[in-house]
Predict the 3D structure of the following.
Amino acid sequence: MGKGVIIALDGPVASGKGTLAPLLAKKLDGFYLQTGAMYRALALYSLRNDLDTPEQVKNSLSDINIDLKGESTFLNNEDITTQLHNNDVSSRVPMVAAIPEVRNVLIREQKRIGYDLREKGISVIAEGRDTGTVVFPDADIKFFLDASVEIRAKRRHAQLQARGEVLSFDKVLDDTIKRDKSDMHQSGALVSRPDQYGYVLIESTDLTQETTLEKILDCMRQRGII
Ligand code: DC
């Protein structure tokens, strides 16, 4: 049995963590714990069932089962992966993610998954906002992936265009700045001083995806984690 480790990978919107985390999971033959997908799955459930208030969402928690398999997400055994980035889900998710009971339940589940797998010798790549602070404060290693707001908006603009959504770059830049502000202030917030929480800061503005991945792997090798 290999040594399982928990790797926390956090960072702001469009920092590239959502692309890097599954690549890292493949490389290490580990499990990709995509925490944002769990909040999105619950947002989709609330839309489908007209659960429009925090109280209604809270009361539905026991009816919901969310499974993560590779890059796919299942809600009560239905593959909902392709629906998770629809605009209506993205608009609904902040309300859902701000409910303390929702955070408690999802964080408990994330901890259960992570610690069980590590115990079994399987590495876990936990990706989100608070995986290195709240979910796994004792992660074996924590990375904070960052890039300038302009480059993140550029990446997001390209992603949206690839999905057929036509928005001006200025609008995407404006949205990214707003998302940064709300991500810093909501419950389970992204930290503004990652160094204080033991994160290794990876600044990827001028790096390609491959170089960023290599940098992360190098850092883990240097620390004897892999
Ligand atoms: O990473 P993402 O964009 O898929 O996240 C979706 C939403 O869930 C986003 O509004 C932030 C929230 N979220 C959170 O509150 N805590 C996490 N650990 C991950 C995501």
Observations:
- The CA atoms of residues 23 and 213 lie 8 Å apart.
- The first strand starts at residue 6 and ends at 10.
